Amino acid sequence: MSVEPEVPIVQVEEVRENPVLYKIISSDNHVFTISEHAVKLSKTLWDLITNLGLTAENALDNPIPVENVNGKNMETIVQFCERHKYDEEEPEYTNYIREFVLPEWDRQLLSIDNEELFQLILATNYLDIQKLMDYCCRVIGDMAKDKTPEELRIIYGIPTDAEDDALERSASDSPGPSG
Amino acid sequence: MRFFRGLPYLALKKLFHFVDYETRLSLQKCSKRTKKLVDAMPFYFELVDISTQPLRIRICEDKGETMTYSNITGLIYNSVRELCQTLFKWIHENTVEKQLNHLWEIFRNKNIRIKTLFVSLTLLCPYDSEFAWVSFERIRLVCCLMKIMLFSLDHQLLVENFIIEYNENHDQVMCFLPFLHPEYLKFIKFINCKSSHAYIGPIVNLPQVIQCRRVVFDGFTWVRMENFQHLPGVCEHDLNLYAYHFQHYFQHNTFEYFGMKGVKDDWFPDVSNTFIDDKNRKSMIVEGPKFAIKIVHKLEKKTIVLQRISLASRNV
After folding, report:
1. What angle do CA B307, B309, B315 make, to 5 degrees?
2. CB–CB contacts below 8 A, A to B
3. Which residue, A48, A85, A149, B130, has fewest beta-carbon neighbours within 10 Å?
């Protein structure tokens, strides 16, 4: 790993119970430390750690670069994972029950700008963190409640039919890969 | 502007899990593209309840009893109006049609899934001939319109549990059940409200009933047991079966269990080869070529249960 951290290491939470720590480097070179239990919530990261053969001895010497996630999102993700690392595995909610209680701590964590929240979902999707994905989608689902189509268009970034048509026309007019 | 701010499909699918029906309708109006997306995303209703006395359609999105259309005032208004019409002994066809149209709008979507469809077609004041006539006419109208509506769909409804209570013959059931997807159904319950001519012959031969894991018949009197012999799992309440042809079950390898409630204490004939099982219940075992059937009389529940057991376990 040739990436040298330019900013101080962000110690999100002191981990007493589990001495195994991993370092993650975000796309903008912020370095985060995350415990083993917490990192397991991300399927992508845990697969990477397993495939790289990182162990308790060499984990801190081999930071993991995550190029698709910036520091701001990574900080939220690390906070979330550390918070929920010892949660019991919840039973998969049935398709018929959309209502589950979003804990207040998580609601506060996700009280961020609309655009940032969508960026966080993209990062969560990339890192494959099911619980955080559920929570984020719940928050943006709630945003839509009792909104008019116009308001929904702004919240979700939905182009009008005319914009869609224009986009389609420009796509068909532009030369293909062969020129 | 990127469509849904560039969310990948999996995230979109999850997002739609948390979007209520009202919002879906609003999203459909945003653009043609969102309409296509909304139509492609499954939507789950906890309950669709159609009752005819007075005509009331209740649609719940989840266990919190969310009313679709948020139209509680409309529901109360329609119920009161229908009740008044019943009292004055006339039916306003437009009211019925209008309410069922709401349902049709929902059912048109192929991706709608319903946990429980409950249909109640019971007569109001069956002993007052004029009231009963108004009730009967309303039921007839609802059934006809539902049949036309469901027939016009290009798909079968995805319903997990179907419960219907009715007074008349099987025609009323045939207005609903054949339009449900047989492979999606897990539970069916028929409740007969004291009708002596509620034949079940045509019903039990529907693929929806044959393929269903659990079928319950409640309140059917004098039913021939052969009617059920091809069904894997049947439960009967308050019935008087005649002709106990258990041997028929051996011809159908799909048999799992059969239960009857409301049986007499001396249900087993005197000549039966019964014994007391390990749970202190009067039992009997009938052996077939491939499996055996254990018949247990649960006295406290006034129930007879026929259960498939292997020949090997019978010998143990």
Report:
1. 135
2. 103
3. B130
Interface mutation vs chain B, best among A43, A92, A97, A120, most B CBs within 10 Å: A97
Instruction: Confirm or reject contact between A121 and chain B (CB < 8 A).
Output: yes
> Average pLDDT of A136-152?
91
A138 CB near a chain B CB, below 8 Å?
Answer: yes
Question: Residue B44 and residue A133: Cβ atoms within 8 Å?
Answer: no
- Which residues, 6+ apart, have CB-to-CB distance to B50 below 8 Å? B56, B57, B103, B117, B118, B119, B120, B142, B146
Is A158 within 8 Å of B34 when comparing Cβ atoms? yes
Whole-angstrom Cα distance, residue A63 to residue A72? 18
Beta bridge mates, B57: B50
A152 Cβ under 8 Å from any chain B Cβ: yes
Cα distance between residue A70 and residue B193, in whole Å: 65
Between the CA atoms of A47, A48, A52 and A53, what dihedral angle is there, to the nearest 10 degrees?
Answer: -40
Which member of A115, A122, A149 has the closest CB to residue B26?
Answer: A149
Q: Are B69 and B45 in contact (CB under 8 A)?
A: no
Amino acid, single-letter form, for residue A62:
N
Mean pLDDT rounded to a whole number for chain A? 84
Peptide bond between residue B54 and the one before it cis (omega within 30 degrees of 0)? yes
Reported for B179-182, long-range contacts at CB under 8 A and 24+ positions apart, including other chains, are B179/B147, B179/B150, B179/B151, B179/B153, B180/B117, B180/B156, B180/B208, B181/B155, B181/B156, B181/B157, B182/B156, B182/B206, B182/B207, B182/B208, B182/B210, B182/B211, B182/B212
Tokens of B148: 């036309």
B69 Cβ contact list (under 8 Å, min separation 6): B21, B22, B59, B102
Token reading at A65 = 């670069």
Domains and CATH numbers, chain A: 12-90+99-171 (3.30.710.10)
Residue A35 and residue A19 in contact, taking contact as beta carbons nearer than 8 Å: no
ipTM of the modeled complex: 0.80
- Token pair 């039973």 is at which residue? A91
**For residue range A67-92, what is the model confidence (pLDDT) as tens digits?**
999 999 999 999 999 999 998 877 66
Q: Do residues B168 and B193 make contact, with C-beta atoms less than 8 angstroms apart?
A: no
**Does the structure show a pLDDT above 60 at A35?**
yes
Model confidence pLDDT, tens digit, residues B146-169: 999 999 999 999 999 999 998 877
